[in-house]
Amino acid sequence: MAEEFNEIIAVLKAQHIRPTKIREEILNLFFDVNHALSHSDIFLKLKNKFDRVTIYRTLEMFGNKGLIHKIVDNSGVTKYASHGHGGCDVNFKHHKTNHIHFKCKQCGNIYCLCSIEVPKVDVPAGYEMQVLNLSAEGICKICSS
Amino acid sequence: MAEEFNEIIAVLKAQHIRPTKIREEILNLFFDVNHALSHSDIFLKLKNKFDRVTIYRTLEMFGNKGLIHKIVDNSGVTKYASHGHGGCDVNFKHHKTNHIHFKCKQCGNIYCLCSIEVPKVDVPAGYEMQVLNLSAEGICKICSS
DNA sequence: CATCAATTGCAACACTGTTGCAAAACAAAC
DNA sequence: GTTTGTTTTGCAACAGTGTTGCAATTGATG
Ligand SMILES: [Mn+2]
Ligand SMILES: [Mn+2]
Ligand SMILES: [Zn+2]
Ligand SMILES: [Zn+2]
Question: What's the domain range around A40?
């Protein structure tokens, strides 16, 4: 619980989300870490307290309200990262624009690298590119030190 | 069946894969298209002829033998693309090196763009990048014409 | 043909994600 | 504070994907 109870509630209210127990606790989990969390991460950390369906619905809602974003890593695992606080490799309050995701091969964590630019890429004639997603793999700051 | 029966068998034998019925038919499907196929694509095209588990095992084996590679798109769907023949946007016989995948928002197909370079990206200090995966989204050559 | 190894199909299972519905919690009005 | 209507939650059920174990089949080899 690194964050103040009241700050969590304030963030929820700012997005017109009713601050219920499960919502406070899930948002608190995101604010406590600087990497992405999977549904099962969250389910385990809140062991037995809430139904898994409610967690799915909460995550979907947080996504719609812009509090978190969904990340599918290249092994197919879905995770979610907070937009505020610890979700980023630097202390940006928001990193809602397109950015690179870094997956550590050692600890498995996914970090949002919002401080580096997404490069431009030209696609072959005939293709019309709208979005470019980048994901890196390697060893994270913590595991390499 | 764009390809010769004998060519399929030759490719299988070259990788020391016994040319059984299901293997010939699956490899033939890959050689017939220039985009990636999902397990269920394959299962449906070979309707009722083979067990789904055998298809999974065949795909895994083709992957290990270097005939196809696995692609997880950013919505979490797993597909497989052939290394030879039509799997690529240009007629490379092999494109086993790292390359960009393009997903068409209209038809849903995934194409391997092996003719364009994967850019270099610098990650923040402390991170050690080993692989960089790129996936583009937009409108494919066919759907935009 | 007999033998042994590889391949296949089937049953069962785990995991992820979704939907419908009824109970509970909550906010607003009386 | 009680009634009323809306949101939220939990539960049951289900679909899709992928994996494993095992027995039956197929195929290669002598
Ligand atoms: Mn991110
Ligand atoms: Mn490819
Ligand atoms: Zn790590
Ligand atoms: Zn298309």
Answer: 2-144
Q: Over chain B (145 residues), what is each successive 10-residue block's mean pLDDT?
A: 73 94 96 95 94 98 95 96 67 68 96 90 95 96 93
CATH number for the domain that contains residue B131: 1.10.10.10
Give the contacts of A48 (CB within 8 A, at least 6 positions apart).
none
Q: What angle do CA B94, B98, B103 make, to 5 degrees?
A: 90
SS3 content of chain A, % helix, strand, coil (to 5): 30, 25, 45
Tokens of A22: 């499960």
Q: For the whole model, what pTM was predicted?
A: 0.91
For A:7-66, CB contacts with B below 8 A are none
CA distance A7 to chain B (A): 29
Determine the nucleotide nearest to A51 by Cα–C1' distance. D10
Q: Are A59 and A39 in contact (CB under 8 A)?
A: yes
Cβ-contact B8, B27 below 8 angstroms:
yes
Q: Choose the mutation target among B127, B130, B135, B141 for the interface with A, i.e. most A CBs under 10 Å.
A: B127
Q: C1' nearest to CA of A60: which nucleotide?
A: C17
Tell me what pLDDT residue B63 has.
Answer: 96
**Number of structural domains in chain B:** 1
How many angstroms separate the CA atoms of B81 and B36, rounded? Answer: 4
